[in-house]
Amino acid sequence: MSITLDHTPFPALDLRRPAVTRTTYVSAAVQPAAPLRLTGRGRAVIVAVALAVITTLAIVFGSAVAATDSASEPGIVTTVTVQPGQTLWSIAAEARPNADIRSTVDEIVKLNALEDGASLPIGSTLAVPVQD
Coil, strand or helix: which one is 54? Predict the structure, then answer.
């Protein structure tokens, strides 16, 4: 162990320079830190957090895929290449002019796995149901 003390003498006080006081303490016996150990409770917390993250991701990203018990009826489908200015609404109206356009748009979205509100890239090919 070493100690260093630097002090200016008391009677020689200089107001232009601040008095310097330096003290150094050095310990010769520095002990290494103990290794980190995980307890049973810590393992349980880590497993619970991992399961919560996996469940949350499955709920958020797995909701796009929905299974149903009813088998869909096979229908006649054609392909349409998206032209500039076309929307799902206009494509559905051309494909089935006498049917409900909203249901036709829903079928186009399901057939092509489109996201709600996503824009249609020009030149992409869509599967579109035709007249019933």
Answer: helix
Closest CA to 77 of 120, 107, 119: 107
pTM higher than the cut 0.70: no
Tokens of 102: 């909203």
The 8-class DSSP code of residue 17 comes to S
- Please give the distance of CA 20 from its chain centroid, rounded to a whole number: 55
Tokens at residue 117, please?
A: 């509100």
Burial 23-42 (b: 16+ CB within 10 A, else e): eeeeeeeeeeeeeeeeeeee
- Provide the pLDDT for residue 12: 57
End-to-end CA distance of the chain: 94
Structure-token pair, residue 132? 């019933």
Asked which of 10-19, 39-48, 49-58, 119-128 is least confident by mean pLDDT, the reply is 10-19
